[in-house]
Amino acid sequence: MPTTQIKDPVHGYVELPDALVEGVVDTRPFQRLRYVRQLSATHLVYPGANHTRFEHSLGVYHLGRTVFENLRQQSYFTRDATTDELEEIQRTLECACLLHDVGHPPFSHLSERFLDEGVLRDRVAEAGLVDAFDRAGVGGAPLRSANPHELLGCVIVVEEYGDALRAFDVDPFEVCAYVLGYSLAYERGEPWQYGVGAQLLHSPIDVDRLDYITRDNEMTGAGVLSFDVERMVDAYTAHPEEGLALSEKALSTIGNYLEGRIALYMWVTQHHKSVYANRLLQAMLGEYAAETGESPVTVDGILDRELDDNAVLERLKLAARERPDSTLASMHDRFRGRRFPATCWKHRIALADRVGGDLGGDSEKGRGPRLDEFTTWLTANDDRLEALLADALDVPVHEVWIDRSYVPAYDPDELEDIPIAYGGTTRSVGDWGLYGDRAFDVPIPFVFVPDGAKRRAIRVLREAFEREVGEETPA
């Protein structure tokens, strides 16, 4: 079969059948992903973070194909499955890996809230996905819990790629199910290997996160991750009852993987400047909608006009230019000039130093019940406290923000679910004691205020906390 090689900076050469290149990669919906940054506005903090959903999708395809081909070398995995069945699973997996992010709107997660879920669910039903899940006995739960970009991706898979996938002898509904973590074939009673195919794309150890962890670390230059990717890939295994797992081969590198995953989250995704840059961009999208009466991102805009980062940035620029006295113009100027205000603390240790000492708890670790109570109080009352601070500092409310990671769903706690297979059973990495617990690796809310106002802001917050929550410290 003729193939095409694409040089990837993370995995080297990615080899694809020419039919996949022609039918999927070299199409307008997939090429749109070249203009959707993987890390939204984080390039304003890490200049190299210009990688996109396009190369990430190629990387996920490469890892998915490699892992599945390795599984097919394990006699235990191929038992009770025919060659034709394994070929079908692999074809489906490869297509699902390529297309799993095709529905991402501009700026990835930042603009998802502008996608009309009512419109999306109508399109999903019209595409036949609801009926397909019902016929397989899965029901509507996977579609109800799906993220907007996953729903939009499923619509695109069926409407734009249905004919091409069927030409590859791949069921487009099964591809959508893989994207959501299910296999309709497995639910209909096909061999357990079908379920493993779906897990490879959607599980605690899926190849999606394996690619973006390694890619985000390398492309940002953060250098917080150092683990043996090839050994990890070789360690994938599976069992009928337990599903996808990592064999004991992974023990030599899983610790580094876990530490790197946490570090990447804390110092890239949760970096205080990343949080601000992405919050600012998200706020600009909201201001655009308020000023123009139009959503900056729509389902039809992506389906029909192929909206991407560049197109929406141009809209923001024009709207800001036409309204020079607006909040949008002020925000846009701040964004383009990268004039980011200070945060009252950059990490949990600084938070404990500036606030935690008088709030009880373990001052050495910076992680006491009162400090945790303070951070919970900040997050739960962010809108009200932003208004309180703006009034106390005599600044517009849009110059004060309380926020944490712009992708809170990526909290590293989920890593405790990673299964390690040994002796015919699996146990999570938490059970094996491979998951650490360090005080400074806990996400915190940041408080952004104009330069020169940090000390006063901290004092206002401390006084408000003591007034509202009380001065008692735990025994």
Outline type: globular
**CATH level-4 homologous superfamily of the domain at 3-220 and 237-248:** Hypothetical protein af1432
Strand order of the largest sheet: 5-9-6
Separate helix tally: 23
Radius of gyration: 24 Å
Distance between the termini: 71 Å
The total strand number stands at 9
Brief summary of the model shown:
This is Phosphohydrolase. With 475 residues, this protein is mainly alpha-helical.
Task: Write up what this structure looks like.
- This protein has 475 residues and is mainly alpha-helical.
- Among the domains are: 230 residues, Hypothetical protein af1432 (Orthogonal Bundle), CATH 1.10.3210.10; 96 residues, no CATH class.
- 53% of the residues lie in helices and 8% in strands.
- It is built from 23 helices and nine strands.
- The chain has a three-stranded antiparallel sheet with strand order 5-9-6. A two-stranded antiparallel ribbon has the order 1-2.
- A hairpin with a 2-residue loop joins strand 7 and strand 8.
- Helix 22 packs across helix 23.
- The longest helix is centred in the middle third of the chain and has 21 residues.
- The termini are far apart.
- About 2% of the residues have low confidence.
- This is Phosphohydrolase.
- It comes from Halorubrum salipaludis.
